[in-house]
Amino acid sequence: MEENKREKKTEGKRGLWKAEEDLILKNYVETHGEGNWAKVSKLLGLKRGGKSCRLRWKNYLRPNIKRGAMSKEEEDLIIRMHNLLGNRWSLIAGRLPGRTDNEVKNYWNTHLNKKTSVLGKRKGKAIAESNHQSIPNHQNNTNTNIAIENQGGEEPIAPPPAELPMISSPKTTTDDEGPVGLLKVDGLTDNTWMERAVRCFDYDYDNNYEIETPLMMMNKNLNYAHIVFDEEPFTPCLDSFVLFEAFGTDSDLGKTQSFLP
DNA sequence: AAAAGTATCAACCGCATTTAC
DNA sequence: CGTAAATGCGGTTGATACTTT
């Protein structure tokens, strides 16, 4: 197993988990369930902190962990989701059954980052660090046709279809957040809807899972600057739908629609 | 064959958020 | 409601494996 690779030189150190430790932790969690990590190491006599136990379980010991090389499909999904979400490894991994955030992160950093220069200006850190100080200039943002760049010169991602999404039946909720709309993109497969979302919204995002469109940010004074993508659309079964919440009033939503491509 | 350089990835760290009290 | 503890996340490190010279 992986943990044996470096065992020789890390013996006696805290570093790599040994098979005995794994067995103890695995047995315990399978019996008592996850959680209370801080108590686990004490109870089990492991010289590991709670965080370390949690990490080991989450990344290696829990059932259905998938090991081995990423498939082309997985790699493709990582690239697409990274385009959309940035370095939100946990979210991305959540859409890859059996893969962990650490694994996805490592895979990106070692395999994909170097061969994929996708929409650099949109990457999480740069956007997050901007902390909303830099509102994209719509005049410079002529890219309703944002390029999804070729990955490693092999298989370029197909451009999104020419037709644009339609808002269907936006409705008002009773909560304080304002109206919730359902953006329906008919006839898309799960391989194309994300590019559609990128292209059609020309999005940026911040640390709070919000995705802002420059088109809307330039109209922030109208109080409908934020679109929040629900996580669910990332599941294949909902591939044709992009849920969003529009912060603002009903009338704002009406205006919002008019600004959508 | 061996030294040097590079790639990989498990584990750790610090910080932010959530939960418990 | 305020504080402390626990949890979760993303960035980074460093040991080892692999490749090149």
TrEMBL record:
One of its GO terms (biological process) is regulation of DNA-templated transcription. InterPro entries: Homeodomain-like_sf, Myb_dom, Myb_TF_plants, SANT/Myb. It holds the Pfam family Myb_DNA-binding. SMART domains: SANT. Residues 13-61, 62-116 form the HTH myb-type domain. Keywords: DNA-binding, Nucleus, Repeat. Gene3D superfamilies: Homeodomain-like. Residues 9-61, 62-112 form the Myb-like domain. The keyword Membrane does not apply. GO terms for cellular component: nucleus. CDD domains: SANT. GO terms for molecular function: transcription cis-regulatory region binding. Its main location: nucleus. It is found in: Nucleus. This is Myb-related protein 308-like protein. It comes from Gossypium australe.
